[in-house]
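step: validate -> pass
step: tokenize input -> pass
step: predict -> running
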Amino acid sequence: MTAVARLKQLIAQARRIVVFTGAGISTESGIADFRSPGGVWSRMKPIAFQDFLASTAHRNEAWRRTFSGAAGWTGAAPNAGHHAVARLVAGGKAEVVITQNVDGLHQASGIAEDRVIELHGNAGYAICLDCGARHELDDLREPFVEVGVIPACRVCCGIVKTATISFGQPLREDVLERARAASHACDLFLVLGSSLVVTPAAALPLIARQAGARLAIVNREPTDQDALADLVIHDEIGSVMPRAAPPATPRSAARRG
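step: predict -> pass
step: emit ->
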């Protein structure tokens, strides 16, 4: 049996899958990995959360990067891997998708927002750090680009930041707890495109494994958790997942619509 056939079998046997995605699923959409050569942080120094809070100059630079598209986190289209994951969710196989990515491509592939757990936030909108109000980037763009007005909250005048988790900014505990609970409850934890080195996210497959779930990893490079997995495939996600995920059915297609 080939590795892809074995993955297809694991998916067929599972009743409650958690899909965990990292940068590797989005590189196939043209979004470079943060840390790899040519990635965002090899081209520009990240702005730490405390610096963003303390310095008007740092906030100005952060918003300049956002509206110039320098980070390259938004504007891409979902690829075959994203669409295969969407089929797992639409068909009732996958309960949730836990992602380290901030690009919103799982939602763009048709997965409902409440089925995507974004550990590191989302680059597609902004939030007030004081009251939590959501702000759409299109509403903030013109005042900044045309006049240089650094965004402030329309509700409380607090500091507004893109809804991503920056260096030095803690993950939201409610989001992390939801991810832990889903990992503990699944019977197959499917890793797609993560090196499994960034904590606390890297602990989620271990939670699933310790609770009795099977673990499958699809990643181009080896990970530190390969030895713990029931199946490891070192290949492109866009090549593997369309063959392993069940095809769309009229029922799942209706759910996406």
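step: describe -> The longest strand covers residues 121-128.
step: cleanup -> pass
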